[in-house]
Amino acid sequence: MILIGTDEAGYGPNLGPLVVSATVWSVPRGGDLSQLGETLRNEGIDIADSKKLYHSGGSLSLLELGVWTAFLSVDKTRVSPRMDTDDPCWQDDFFKGGIADTDWRLVHKLASVFLSTLESFGVRLLRVRSLILGVTDFNQRLDACGSKGTLLSEATLEIVREIFIEEPEYRLNGVVFCDKHGGRNRYLDLLTRFFPDDFFHVEQESRPLSVYRSKNLEFRFQSKGESQLPVALASMFSKYLREVSMHNFNAFWHSHLPDLKPTAGYPVDAKRFKAEIAAVQTRLGINDNLIWRKK
């Protein structure tokens, strides 16, 4: 059977992109990966909620180690940045190298361990897909749908739909895990819009869990969804790509203002940062819609 886990990073900030990722796994029937996660941890590979692996201002090494270990092991990875090329977060290849003090010999060693461990459980990591929404695209989508929660749901289901279009066989026996989006508990209308050929039944709609099933598919929107291994790895990829983007963003502004303190982009500090770059922003002719998210 196929398990797909999705998660985001950058939902709350005013600066930098929103990143949504999906990981696709082939697993034996039943799909319980809890023992696999524990075995990987014992081998030194921690696949967990990104918030447990990285805290703003701390070392990115542990998160980078896990992401690159998986990246080198996956059958197919695709990053789809949607940014104006004038966006200060832009780079041509988001996986051209690390940004932390990572031991790359260890990464390659752990990638081999990761593959052999998955194989021993009859599991394959088939795909990782990430969508990086730059500020301009984020603001346009927000204007179109009206709320950040809906924007996140639409971006998430867009990725899943693209995966199913590319690999139609994945939808024949699949379960999709999503974190809850902006406190939303009802997703049937969105599922019907993105997957019109499936007739979904509402199995449960509650604050902790909302479940929908069709003939071949199941969608589970779950609070604390990162407890599921596929969601945890999606969380890690999203957070890492968000941090790479903010690394580029801060480096861009630092090149113009060497004494400028970097920002993670969250509301209070974002206002400080925005005020400090204002004069340079005007001189460079960079429009607010390129760097400042409306919500």
Detail the topology: elements first, then pairings.
Elements: E1 2-9, E2 18-26, H1 34-42, H2 50-53, H3 61-71, E3 76-82, H4 104-120, E4 124-133, H5 135-145, H6 148-166, E5 174-179, H7 188-194, E6 201-205, E7 209-213, E8 217-222, H8 229-256, H9 267-284, H10 288-291
Parallel strand pairs: 1-5, 3-4, 5-8
Antiparallel strand pairs: 1-2, 2-4, 6-7, 7-8
**Total of helices:** 10
Average of the residue pLDDT scores:
93
Name the CATH superfamily assignment. Ribonuclease H-like superfamily/Ribonuclease H
Q: Unreliable segments (pLDDT under 50, ≥5 consecutive)?
A: none
Task: Characterize the quaternary organization of these chains.
Answer: single chain
Counted up, domains total 1
Q: State the order of secondary-structure elements, H for helix, E for strand.
A: EEHHHEHEHHEHEEEHHH
State the major sheet: 8 strands, mixed
- Find the CATH topology: Nucleotidyltransferase, domain 5
Strand content: 15-25%
Radius of gyration: 19 Å
State the share of residues found in helices, binned by percent: 40-55%
- At CATH level 2, the architecture is 2-Layer Sandwich
Give a description of the structure.
With 295 residues, the chain is of the alpha/beta class. The protein has one domain (2-246): Nucleotidyltransferase, domain 5 (2-Layer Sandwich), CATH 3.30.420.10. Helices cover 43% and strands 19% of the residues. The chain has 10 helices and 8 strands. The chain has helices spanning 34-42, 50-53, 61-71, 104-120, 135-145, 148-166, 188-194, 229-256, 267-284, 288-291, and strands at 2-9, 18-26, 76-82, 124-133, 174-179, 201-205, 209-213, 217-222. Strands 3-4-2-1-5-8-7-6 form an 8-stranded mixed β-sheet, with helices on both faces. The two termini are 38 Å apart.
